[in-house]
Amino acid sequence: MKKIISVLLSVALVATLLVGCGGSTGSASGAKKVGVSMPTKDLQRWNQDGANMEAELKAAGYEVDLQYASNDVQTQVSQVENMINSGCNVLVIAAIEGSSLGEALDMAKAAGIPVIAYDRLLMNSDAVSYYATFDNYMVGTKQGEYIEQTLDLANAAGPFNMEITAGDPGDNNAGFFYQGAIDVLQKYIDEGKLIVVSGQTKFEEVATPAWATETAQSRAENIIANNYVDGTKLDVWLCSNDSTSMGVQNALEANYDVAGLGWPVITGQDCDKANVKNMLAGKQSMSIFKDTRTLASQVVKMTGQILSGETVDVNDTETYDNGTGVIPSYLCEPVFADVNNYKELLLDSGYYTEADLQ
Ligand code: BGC
Questions:
Q1: Please, which residues bridge with residue 116 across strands?
Q2: Could you give the angle at which helices 242-255 and 273-280 cross, rounded to 10 degrees?
Q3: For the whole model, what pTM was predicted?
Q4: For the chain, first and last CA: distance in Å?
């Protein structure tokens, strides 16, 4: 009798495994499986995004296949293809390069697997079902307004000297950050109240491929060497995010007279630990807090809604056209952060511990 029961159990187990793995979707345990493709472990924020997504999805009962692609496009393509072949039911993708996943996305579409673009929009593909991000234009607006207020541009005579460092041209977000800030500052540039001494103002001139700290640093070193070693005062450096801001800060520390002329106003985004420490040390003026827990929760919610056929929660159906049409989006709100509110935002909320910032 025992033997019969055990044989029946084995048959049932094999049947479950076959249904789970042999079909186009599903996992061995019968739980729905979500593939989460992240760009890199090199930048702090993506580690947090990945960890939060994994924890929240597991807590909601999903199986998770989380992969990081070392900022290598081909690696990301293969990882996404593997997720499709291994039966993921939904794909959540933060692209390294927005337009490079075309074929993998076509595969997902052919297999009927919905795709959520995570933080960065996936471009030129009609396989993208939804987009969840922070309001990227608002990030730039907040950086621009901070500069406007801190230098009191509306009232002060100026002129003030400024430089600009933007993000990766392959990341659709980068243009939104840049444009949001420039739309606030352009009139002061036109009036001559803000002078970009290097003359480099266009997005293509100020962009930083792969958002790399080293690239931002070497461009900043050139700008300083060519324009600021003669004692010319630099008043402000608009940086789109923390990794590029760090490059600029490194370059200033080594090549600009910060002791004599003082640190310029320097912006950032992400509240990376190293940058928060630099804010506390007076080297970076502000950052933007994008609570990755909020974005992860939203994406888990959208995943559940997609899988159960419910209406998916979006709050923007106008802004993000990926070249094939507008992708329904959910935009979380970015929050201004500086030394005055970091405790409340980052410590009291449990995002970081005191030790993280020492
Ligand atoms: C994200 C930023 C991040 C940057 C570099 C952008 O797509 O929105 O938060 O700083 O990528 O990783």
A1: 92, 130
A2: 50
A3: 0.90
A4: 64
| Distance (Å) from CA 319 to ligand 1 centroid | 18
| CA of residue 18 to ligand 1 center, whole Å | 40
- Short-list 307, 280, 296, 295, CA closest to 335: 295
Verify whether ligand 1 is closer than 6 Å to residue 43 (CB atom): yes
Ligand 1 within 6 A of 174 CB?
A: no
Atom of ligand 1 nearest to the CA of 119: 8
**DSSP secondary structure code for residue 334 in this structure:** P
The CA 233 to ligand 1 mean position distance, Å, reads 29
For residue 132, give the 3-state DSSP assignment.
strand
The DSSP element (H or E) to which 108 belongs, if any, is helix 102-110
Least confident of 25-29, 136-140, 164-168, 277-281: 25-29
Using the structure block, give the residue that is written with the tokens 């190293």: 274
Which of 134, 171, 214 to mutate to test ligand 1, by most ligand atoms within 8 A of the CB atom? Answer: 171
Ligand 1 in reach of 45 Cβ (< 6 A): yes
**Token digits of residue 242:** 């923390």
In sequence order, what are the beta bridge partners of 115?
91, 128
Alpha carbon separation from 110 to 105, 107, 253 (Å, rounded): 9, 5, 52
At 90 the pLDDT is 98
**Phi, psi (5° rounding) for residue 67?**
-130, 140
Task: Fill in the amino acid letter for 228.
Answer: Y
Q: What is the pLDDT of residues 296-311, one digit of tens each?
A: 999 999 999 999 999 9
- Is the distance from CB of 249 to CB of 278 less than 8 angstroms? yes
- Cβ 142 under 6 angstroms from ligand 1: no
